[in-house]
Known about the structure:
The protein is mainly beta. It has one domain (27-102, 116-502): Porin, CATH 2.40.160.100. 4% of the residues lie in helices and 45% in strands. The strands form two sheets. It has an 18-stranded antiparallel β-barrel. It starts with a helix and ends with a strand.
Amino acid sequence: MKFMKIACVIAVALCLAGSVYAETQSVKVSGDLTMRGIFRDQYNYLSSGGNAEPEPRTGNTQTNQSFFMSVAEIQVDADLTDNVQTVIRLVNQRDWNVYSKTSTSATSIAPNGLGGYTMNEDAFNVMVDLAYVTLKDFIYSPLTLTIGRQDLWFGKGFIVGANLQNPGMNVGPISPNQISGTAGNLSAPEYTAVTGFDSIKAVLDYDPWTITAIYANINNGAIQDNDGTNLWGVNVGYKFDSYKAEMEGYWFWKQDNMIDVYSTQLKDNTNQVQTVGLRGSFDPIDTITIAAEGAYQGGTYVGSRNQINNMSRSAWAIDASIETRYLVDKFSWKPKLGAEFIWYSGMPERNDAASAGTYKGWDPMYRGKFDSAIREFVGRFYQTGRFGSAANQLVSCTDASFTNQYQVIFLGSIQPIESLNIKANYNLFWNQEQFDNADTKTQGFVGQEVDINTTWDYTEDVSFGLLVGWFIPGTVYDTNTAMTGQAGDHVATDIVGSVKVSF
């Protein structure tokens, strides 16, 4: 009898396995491995130590840092039937062999042992970055439905492009004023590979029209009963028959209940961002591309747990660019040139707890496109010595790069040989409103940044890269900081060497 049970179980398993195999038309395994060596100096613009150094994970207070990191990804794409596909991508990302120090005078130091150092065991975890199913011709032929953790990118990624995350444990001391959401396995979280959304996406393809609707669950917590962050959106795009022209309009609604408001006077304690916008691009001639995007934000603003008064939103953003490829066919190095202007509306320094009226600062939503290596991550992952982070505030620091800023970018690239590509950009930054009401110098020139990015394709599968960036602080950082007595105007340096293997 026991033999018969075992035989029946094996038979059923074989039948199931056979049916699954029969329904799988093809399976593709791909992936990549990226190793980076990073050197950074004076990321807080101070000449020595001070608050707000560049490593958000450990709170390291050295003026310069050097470390290595790795990102490994494996993706499996399976076509189950003609209209059903699934994707799963696994990721491990970590700084190399990071330990936190907890030793005291009584700690035993064993030969070749760690003696008071604790390893970040989360660094070796494998995370599920993507896991979704795509149903084509769902219900009827123009509709495609995608359900699960997936990448979302619209247009140039100005509003929705990446949900940047840095999973992992808190290693080492974390300041109470630390930029929120930065503790994790990477000391350079801007290089995270975990950018997906847990979402449902429906696409209606009526060529040349495309209509996309999304719902994404961003966060769920336990602060209050209706806590969490959700994102809804509709994007309508159209491709024209001439000039390679395209246009799209969109509406995105972010509903954020993650701020545990203490005040009982607020009629609505939900931070709501209603973003509507229009984007388009075209080639007036074959060698020039012109693009522009404008967006408006309405809704309600809750920026502090101590906020008393309800505030409405009214904010604007613009991104306009031009690229010329006229010289590509004229010279063997294939030079390209471009320029771009970006503006985020802003507010002067204010007290979120007591302010009233209309909030005019731009909310970054889930932007995925970044045009500089250093400045554009201030307020997202890093803070400066001149302006520390704001504890329990939605806008993490007064000089945050995602609001209250004008940015002008000049871009260029050359290709000396087929396998070598050199790109460079020169960024200029100004703020619209002053950072400090008591100091008029904090309105004006934020700084300038030069980034040079070189990529060498060693083979079709292996490439080497070298990024060198310098941010030169402007007049808003001239004043000495209260904490250190230093002017926060020292040049920040970022050097990143990388090797990437794709398969």
